[in-house]
TrEMBL record:
It comes from Halorubellus litoreus. This is DUF2795 domain-containing protein. It holds the Pfam family DUF5789. It comes from the Archaea.
Length: 77
């Protein structure tokens, strides 16, 4: 069974991993996580991670920054 969290708590979920880590591994691990945004929309966190540009991340902050970029781009469309 998957879990749901708000976008403001995504960094906590990302901190559960050991870094460096490969994007595909993070995406697979988060495939059962639904993230809810302030406006009430939802998205699959694993799918959002798979849309990031880097193939690997050295730290939580690196992944979170790219995830912010993906989310911002999705909102602007």
């Amino acid at each position: 069974m998957g879990r749901t969290l708000t976008y403001e708590h995504v960094e906590t979920a990302l901190a559960e991993f050991s870094y460096p880590i490969v994007r595909d591994d993070v995406a697979a691990e988060l495939a059962d996580v639904t993230v809810t945004f302030e406006e009430g929309t939802e998205a699959n966190l694993g799918a959002l991670v798979s849309e990031t540009d880097s193939d690997a991340f050295d730290a939580v902050a690196d992944l979170h920054e790219e995830l912010d970029d993906v989310v911002t781009a999705d909102v602007e469309q």
